[in-house]
Amino acid sequence: MELQLQIKMNPKLYLRDPDGTDLGRNIIKHGIQLIHDIGFEDFTFKKLAIEIGTTEASIYRYFENKHRLLTYITTWFWTWLEYQLIFHTNNLKHPKEKIDIIIRLLTFQVQDKFIVEYINKSTLHAIVICEGDKSYLTKQVTADNKSMLFKPYKDLCHRIAEIFLELNPDFPFSHSLASTLIETAHRQLYFKEHLPSLTDFGKSKEVKPLFSFLQHLIFTALNK
Amino acid sequence: MELQLQIKMNPKLYLRDPDGTDLGRNIIKHGIQLIHDIGFEDFTFKKLAIEIGTTEASIYRYFENKHRLLTYITTWFWTWLEYQLIFHTNNLKHPKEKIDIIIRLLTFQVQDKFIVEYINKSTLHAIVICEGDKSYLTKQVTADNKSMLFKPYKDLCHRIAEIFLELNPDFPFSHSLASTLIETAHRQLYFKEHLPSLTDFGKSKEVKPLFSFLQHLIFTALNK
DNA sequence: TTTTAAATGATAGTAATACTATTATTTTTT
DNA sequence: AAAAAATAATAGTATTACTATCATTTAAAA
């Protein structure tokens, strides 16, 4: 039995809810694919419209601009990751095991239990790695933050921080360590693939050395 | 006595060397200011031309496009940072002291000894924090890397990694830890300013807690 | 089942962006 | 003083990033 998942997104992310119509879901589905294929800079609503077989104007009824679409899909990813985290750490007793799961989740090592037919999660994960930071590295970050657009990312970060505190209640940098873990996992994956001399992992498909690095980083930092 | 500094840049970064003419230096100087003021997305050569009092076409003779200009200035920053690192760690015996300097350099705590009259280094540092990652988070990363555009970043990373190995010669993740340190220092500074709940530092100007966090992260990771 | 409303398609249009090209003028070097 | 290099002035193009209008299709409510 597969678990059907529907994530309710912050309405400020869109003009019309893409999850409610065929066209909307197509925008998300093909949007993810196209951003992945040609990169966010070259991605336009025009190209996406042609891909889907609709018009530019129709896409603009769903999203104010391509940056909002990027924020929508990355935010969806963070929400989904938090679900995964809750699901997979449920019933685990020791925080060490939970942290293990977190690192596995961040490095593609966990089999997905949830199904969303129009979202390809591994393509989405690849986008989050390459383009995700661009959703908050803008001049509108403060306005977007006030609209709560980054809440899912913060929630995930906070949940991870709490697990860190289970292991070491006196640790004074739980949130910074959590955001560092998320960012580092993704950035090292990116470097491994594109700028390998900034890492110690070579270019092999193997994620184990990265996994060990992150484990080492987190557990030594949390050790009393 | 102030040290005059001239950094020789990779010619693939530009079409005409901006360091050789008044207009070129103005492009760098006002380019840094304008990118800082309006953000890289809204920055255009048109706007920069108006700012300088020249024409768009003249700027295009120096840089192929605005992305190249961004890579030029961030690369300049990494080269300058490596100079600073060499200068300030010179004659230091213990790697612990050197690592201290590295962290101070990454968090704006070191007084600059070099002078470059047309580059405002604290504005540049702010750009590197907000926009720097965009120079390699593109579809052209592999081509740019082949042209050695990221060599200064890699050199800095390698130098830091070597210092880590002085402290712990058996540490297997020296490069990843170095790139993580650089990225984390900047990302946490960004979060502190714009998304403070992803950190434990509040929004005060104080960089000390960040400094402690980074010290803790690095020294526990390197500890045998 | 009609009617009404909502969503989409088709088309057009605008201002700005990201360039390239040409020629005249100024500045620098020889 | 002549030659070469750099810059300014101007123009032009394709694409991007939208907004607007109206006709048509599809879905929801009466």
Automatic annotation (TrEMBL), chains A, B:
What species does this protein belong to? Chitinophaga silvatica
Gene Ontology molecular function: DNA binding
The highest taxon in the source lineage is Bacteria
Keywords, ordered alphabetically: DNA-binding
Q: Does the keyword Thylakoid apply?
A: no
> What protein am I looking at?
TetR/AcrR family transcriptional regulator
The UniProt record lists the HTH tetR-type domain at 21-81
Asked if the Swiss-Prot or TrEMBL record annotates the protein with the keyword DNA-binding, the reply is yes
| Pfam families the record matches | TetR_N
Record-annotated DNA-binding residue ranges: 44-63
What PROSITE patterns does the entry give?
A: HTH_TETR_2
